[in-house]
Amino acid sequence: MPATGIFLGLSLTDRSRVVGQGPDVRELSQRVTRRPPGMAAAPTTARANVNLALVKYWGKRDPALNLPAAGSISLTLDGLSVEASVAFGGGEADRVEIDGVLAAGEEAQRVTGFLDLVRAEAGRRERALVETRSTVPRGVGLASSAAAFAALALAASRAAGLALAPPALSALARRGSGSAARSIFGGFVEWQRGERFDGRDSVAEPLAPPDFWDVRVVVAMTSSAPKAVSSRAGMVRAATSPLYPAWVAGVEADLAEARAAIRARDLEALGLIAEHSALTMHAVGLAARPPLLYWRGATVDCLHRVWALRAEGTPAFATIDAGPQVKVLCAPADAGRVAEALRVVPGVERVLTCAPGCGAEVVA
Ligand code: 2P0
Predict the structure, then answer these.
(1) Distance from the CA of 60 to the center of ligand 1, in angstroms?
(2) How many other CB atoms are there within 10 angstroms of residue 71's CB atom?
(3) Which pLDDT band holds residue 13 (cuts at 50, 70, 90)?
(4) Å from CA of 287 to ligand 1 middle
(5) 51-98: pLDDT as tens digits
(6) Which domains are assigned to the chain?
(7) Would the CB of 183 count as within 6 Å of ligand 1?
(8) pLDDT digits (tens, 9 = 90+) for 271-282
(9) Per-residue exposure over 31-42, b if at least 16 CB sit within 10 Å of its own CB, e if not
(10) In the beta sheet, which residues pair with residue 353?
(11) What are the two backbone dihedrals, phi and then psi, of residue 248, each rounded to the nearest 5 degrees?
């Protein structure tokens, strides 16, 4: 898939739509010096956090370009991150190490295909040495691919001598994994569906920085087994569901409600729309052919526990991604109570709590 112009076509200097960003993203816009071709380059290392979708991305209008059928809104989470180091030069082929293990097959191909986009954009041919290290606990069900491709987009583009502005970086990250488009930014983020066939307008943008609103996400892990159906395959299956058109048609209204709730720092409004978005997404799967259900028994029990907490007066709201874990949005003061309530649900293996996190940044 030719990439020329998709990333650089976006203005490198127009940051008028990027508001409230910290030094990490501001730094992304600075130009870097390109090394002479053939010279062994020092690795560039970047870090990005995972993000949690509050209005879900579930379905594509173009699978090759990872263009979503609808927009989505997320919160970037602190402390669950992936660091990627990239160096171009030397070698016959790309070498990809993920958490110390040499990647092979489809996994390696996905990274090489992504690096090809960066090479095409930078006009370079050298192979790359890539190392990624994840602080996301294994099996946590918090899509580490979002953090991985956001970190990789930043590290690889920098290592190749490109200085992409945040929107262009988001478009690049999207090509690796759709949700990675959002992990370029910190805090609350919206990823636009876009209208163009080339995807140039399907990029994420920050809605509010991490310190705009201090909330917590409590994650209840109900299984550490790898999921049977990937998100990618799940989205293909979702499109067979008779409920799919209604899901896509409803997202615009969900986005408007979520945006307004974030602006007003209204936890109940945001929580209710996040819960609705997640449950509708999973309802689509139930009606697909063949059916798709990511939940375990403990997933359902956690949902009931969250609803019981609410009935008892604790504002807590559940969301579930393409896996059996339950993520609960609540106020910082309630996070301890929510974590304790979920910890004792039979089948819950582990509970962790996250605050809003920052966007992708170069760390070395
Ligand atoms: C999301 N998920 O909005 C939704 C909700 C999972 C459930 O984005 O095929 O790994 O690489 O674009 O981004 C996970 O899907 O899929 C995801 P690809 P991705 O967070």
Answers:
(1) 10
(2) 20
(3) very low
(4) 19
(5) 999 999 999 999 999 999 999 999 999 999 999 999 999 778 999 999
(6) 23-210 (3.30.230.10), 216-354 (3.30.70.890)
(7) no
(8) 999 999 999 999
(9) eeeebeeeeebe
(10) 218
(11) -65, -40
Res. 141: pLDDT tops 70: no
- Local structure of residue 297 (DSSP, 8 states): H
Residue closest by Cα to atom 8 of ligand 1: 179
Distances (CA, A) of 288 to 60, 63, 238, 242, 252: 16, 18, 6, 7, 22
Q: Is the CB of 325 under 6 A from ligand 1?
A: no
Residue 30: pLDDT band (50, 70, 90) is: very low
Q: How far is the CA of 232 from the centre of ligand 1 (A)?
A: 7
Cα Rg of the chain (Å, integer) = 20
Rounded-to-integer distance, Cα 228 and Cα 285, Å: 14
**Cα(102)–Cα(356) distance, integer angstroms:** 32
Q: Which atom of ligand 1 is nearest to the CA of 63?
A: 9
